[in-house]
Amino acid sequence: MNNTALRSWVEIPENSDFPIQNLPFGIFKTTGTEPRPGVALGNMVIDLSVLAENSFFDVAEIPDPGVFFESTLNPFIALGRPAWKKVRQILQELFSESSEAIKGNAELTDAILIPMDNCEMLLPVEIPDYTDFYSSLEHATNVGIMFRGKDNALMPNWKHLPVGYHGRSGSIVVSGTDLHRPMGQTKADDADAPSYGPSKLMDFELEMGFIVGKETELGEVVSTENARDHIFGMVLCNDWSARDIQKWEYVPLGPFLGKNFGTSISPWIVTLEALEEFRVDGPAQDPKPLSYMKNPAKSTFDIQLEVLIQPEGKNESIICRSNFKHLYWSIDQQLAHQTVNGCNVRVGDMYASGTISGPTEDSYGSMLELSWRGSKTIKLQDGEERKFLKDNDTVILRGYCEKDGQRIGFGEVSGKLLPAKQ
Ligand code: CA
After folding, report:
1. What is the mean pLDDT of residues 183-188?
2. Coil/strand/helix, residue 81
3. Predicted TM-score (pTM) of this structure
4. Is the peptide bond prior to 252 cis by the omega test (within 30 degrees of 0)?
5. Which residues contact residue 388 at a Cβ distance below 8 angstroms, ignoring those fewer than 6 apart?
6. CB 162 within 8 A of CB 135
7. pLDDT tens digits, residue range 7-24?
8. Which residues line ion ligand 1, judged by CB < 5 Å?
9. The CATH classification of domain 130-418, taken from the options 3.30.70.20, 3.40.50.10140, 3.90.850.10, 3.30.200.20
10. Which residues are catalytic, by number?
11. Distance (Å) from CA 133 to ligand 1 centroid
């Protein structure tokens, strides 16, 4: 559990996502320097390579401090949980109010603490594989009603396993990366034949993803009880979706080009250690899952989520407020199901939750649902309104946990939808 009384000598702005209890990991660079691992603290980035140079990580749990000079977090993550916990402990000691080890040395402080505004954030991990689940009962029901009618909304398998598909890790991008509206094949309900052109029904999906921290071998099965040993941390994820392309292509093998042109993630990976005290039980599961899918207690997290749209040159408007805890299937169950057939997982793999919709109309995690397939108008500030995304709209996802005056946040993932490249 986090020590909520711990305070840092580094100034932490009120309501910061990054107090000393959080310490999320990312990859950053500054002008003229190489990408390297950092940790967010308030409005600063802790340069782990400088700490390593100054021998702060010369401990048994970190056999190779060279990992703090790499351009991805994979080598560090591969060292395993003892190393993650040790780095967290060392940082909490060095940056706590009572420590003089760095604070007393102005030159060292300047080298170690870099203003976040001066940092460019990069993709934190090289992602070998990406699976996207479909784990929100509310989202699956809403989309099912729209695509197949009320009586066939949930497929017979849905409450027995976390439905998912393999996505494209190569098109996962970090927050701040703009994407073009995809071109593709669509067919309107009243058209005789499909046509080719820019997607007309561009959408976001409010998701979160977990990053694998410990690999398995082919044939190895991860139980729900052991799943947490294999998870490093979590990020926010916008799984951009072209609904018209999706609708025409998805039968019978599932999502394809309507999804894989871009998936955006937040740059800071928040560790499970930082999230531990925000654990809650997920929704009751009926029917009871099969034995290999038994859900451990407190298998999910109370993470408040919001989505904002910012039209070009205009103010941002909140269009959705949801919560990670609404998800029917937990990350423990997702990983257990992913590996039940012996499929291996690798360090850096990302497993996304699927759209996180809540029970109320203002908690739906996609424009498809918020506009109910274009039948309703979503009102924004400045007199703007939307049914789906327009060119040059920026979509921003934010998320944070808050309890007893403590806030552990994820920062944000944002991206602009550029016009199609024709
Ligand atoms: Ca998705």
Report:
1. 97
2. helix
3. 0.98
4. yes
5. 200, 201, 202, 203, 243, 367, 368, 371, 374
6. yes
7. 999 999 999 999 999 999
8. 132, 205, 239
9. 3.90.850.10
10. 139
11. 7
